[in-house]
Each structure stands twice: as C-alpha cells, then as structure tokens.
Amino acid sequence: MNRLAGKVAIVTGGGAGIGEAISKKFAREGAAVVVCGFPEDPVEAVVEEIQKAGGRAVAYTGDISVQEQAEACVKAAVKEFGQLDILINNAGVFPATGTIDKYPVEAFQYMIKNNIYSCFMMTRAAMPELQKTRGNVVSAGSEAGWMGIPENTPYGGTKGFVHAFMKGVAVEQAKEGVRANCVCPGPVDTAWTHKETGPMSAKMEKQTVEGTPMGRRGTPEEIANVYLFLASDEASYVTGALFFADGGVTNSKGPHGAEVPSKLKQEPEGELDLKHEHDGHAEIRKQDQWQHLG
Ligand SMILES: NC(=O)c1ccc[n+]([C@@H]2O[C@H](COP(=O)([O-])OP(=O)(O)OC[C@H]3O[C@@H](n4cnc5c(N)ncnc54)[C@H](O)[C@@H]3O)[C@@H](O)[C@H]2O)c1
C-alpha cells in the first residue's frame, strides 16, 4: 500500500478492462486518479467505487485522440489535484480481425485514431506537467506489436508505433527527469479475447490461449501490477523499457499451453472488485457487432 502516495495519475480508458484495474490499483496505492474514457464509458461508476473505498478519483470524459480534449484532460487533472505525476496511455481499440487483403479500411482508421493519436496527443499534452514533477508515462504496448500475429496485423502495427514512440520519448525526456515505458501484455481476460464479446474467431481464441506457455489469459489485475511498478519510484532507473507481461507467449513456439495441467492454470484471485461487463470500447459495444473476416 501507498506505493503512489502523493502522486496524481491520469488513466486513459480507465473505465473498463485493464484500465479499470489500473485505476483501482493506483487509487489503493494512494494516488489521486483521473479516470478517463469516452462519454459512453462507465468511468463515473469506477470513480464512485474508488471513492467508496476511500480513494481519490474524478472522471474525465472525452475523446482524447482529439488535441483539445487531450489538453482538457490534462488541465482537469491539474485543476482538481494541483499537479500531474503519471500518465497511463491505456486507451485502445481492437475492432476487427482478418487477413490483410480483406481487412476493413475503416477498422484500420479507427485504430490509428484511438491507438496512435490518443497516445501521441496525451503524451504531448501531459509532458510540460510531467517535467515539473519529474513524472513518467506508461503506455499500452502488446505482444502483437512485437511479433507477427496472423489476421491481426494492423493492430500489431499500431502497437509497434507505441513501442517505438515510448522508447524515443524515454531517450529525449531523460534530461528532464521524465521516464517513459510500455507494458506489453499477452492475452488478457477482457472482452477482446473472448469470441462472444470481441473480434476473435473460435480458432483464434483457442490458439491464443494454447499458444501461451502458461495456458491461460492474464487477469487485468496482473497487468495493473506491472503498470504500478513502472509508474512508481521503485522503477526509478527503468526507462525506454518494453516490459512484457505475457505468460511467456512472446518467447514461445507451438501450443505449449495445451499441455499445462488445469491446476496450474488457476488465475490468482486478486483483490480488486472489477466489472467485466464494462469491458470493450464504447462505440463498438453499442453496435453489438464484431467483425471476423477470416
Ligand atoms: N485485452 C488484451 O488482451 C490486451 C493485450 C495487449 C494489450 N492490450 C492493450 O491494453 C489496453 C486496454 O485493453 P482492454 O482489453 O482493457 O480494452 P477495453 O476495451 O476493455 O478498454 C479500453 C477503453 O479505452 C477506451 N477508449 C478507446 N479509445 C479512446 C479514446 N480515443 N478516448 C477515450 N477513451 C478511449 C474505450 O472506450 C474502452 O473503455 C489497450 O490499449 C490494448 O491495446 C490489451
């Protein structure tokens, strides 16, 4: 507890999935949190739960891929809590899977906007405040930005941008005392990795789990633990890192997960009360329709 005492953090995409876990974890560790999401996202619900548990949080709703709204989010943090120490660029989207010859151009554009513009706009807007506090940025990378995943190539490309961008920011801003890192998860137990609630086909879902040496998805809380370390002063010498939290998947070849006995596939119980029904990005959730184009 209190590993982030006195710190102020923005968590983008903080109302759902991994972002909900990061928001709640950071608040438990003493940070004041700006929980940021689209207006349709359940950010207010997450804020209420944090406050009920005795933590400090406010909601910011807007589209942070838009320059003015990203700047307004940073201003809201400083107005409410007086400073900004940590920016978590967690917001992202995963609208479709399919081979590149069939991949919908609109889905590609949607990812460029929400995975790349949002990370750039928030980092740009937050940097002057992070320089004042000698703060840090942690962004959502992915196994998909590191290795090739069939039928998932444009998503991986957007995460490859995030990896390279954070490394550059790390080198450039070291002289200002600002650190920048990525958490690169493997498959995580949010809406995205289940065929019923995300764009993965049954085959892709099976391969995703069995291709992971640990034979299971990570929990949002397990990923939030890594964000916590990188955002905290314990990581004071860590910058420009791609920190993989992936059950071994980026080092694997073949369906090793299928061989893991079921007793070793038990997820840790965790401490956070997470609302899985909130997972998935708002615009797509509304459409109630995912695209798998084979
Ligand atoms: N789930 C996984 O298996 C996995 C694996 C690797 C990396 N990641 C990364 O982790 C992050 C979170 O994934 P998740 O599964 O928790 O997703 P999620 O859909 O549950 O949560 C993401 C949230 O970000 C919000 N968001 C997206 N664009 C936004 C914008 N422009 N402005 C404001 N809010 C915006 C969405 O509405 C949504 O609420 C993503 O960046 C994703 O690429 C996820």
UniProtKB/TrEMBL annotation:
Tell me the domain of life: Bacteria
Output the NCBIfam families linked to this UniProt entry. PRK07231.1
SUPFAM superfamilies annotated for this entry?
NAD(P)-binding Rossmann-fold domains
- PANTHER family in the cross-refs: DEHYDROGENASES, SHORT CHAIN, ESTRADIOL 17-BETA-DEHYDROGENASE 8-RELATED
Please give the InterPro entries that the UniProt record associates with this protein: NAD(P)-bd_dom_sf (IPR036291), Sc_DH/Rdtase_CS (IPR020904), SDR_fam (IPR002347)
Q: What family does the database annotate?
A: Belongs to the short-chain dehydrogenases/reductases (SDR) family.
Q: Cite a single GO MF annotation.
A: oxidoreductase activity
Q: Please list where the region (Disordered) is annotated.
A: 194-218, 249-294
Keywords assigned: Oxidoreductase
Under which name does UniProt file this protein?
A: SDR family oxidoreductase
State a single Pfam family of this protein: adh_short_C2
Q: Where is the composition biased (Basic and acidic residues)?
A: 194-208, 262-294
